[in-house]
Design goal:
With 74 residues, this protein is mainly α. The protein has one domain. Helix content is 54%, strand content 0%. Helix 1 packs parallel to helix 2. The longest helix is centred in the last third of the chain and has 23 residues. The two termini are 12 Å apart.
Length: 74
């Protein structure tokens, strides 16, 4: 099972790449959601869901705009 650290690192990597490659998308990045869940698996699932939403944002935008973002896939 993944820990919270892995998805958080992936999130930080993609956010950094978004800021560098597509700064115009920065306004669409919401802050990392707070997790008040007590179950580690639920927290990890929520973080992975947030990461997936960032990947979708970049994937859809990159199809029609210049820039190259390599998205880390876990």
């Amino acid at each position: 099972m993944k820990t919270q650290i892995e998805p958080k690192e992936d999130i930080m990597i993609i956010i950094t790449k978004i800021h560098r490659e597509f700064p115009e998308l920065s306004k669409y990045i919401i802050e990392m959601p707070l997790n008040d869940a007590k179950n580690e698996a639920v927290i990890v699932k929520n973080l992975e869901s947030y990461y997936d939403s960032l990947v979708d944002l970049v994937d859809k935008y990159a199809k029609t705009h210049q820039g190259t973002v390599e998205i880390p896939r876990s």
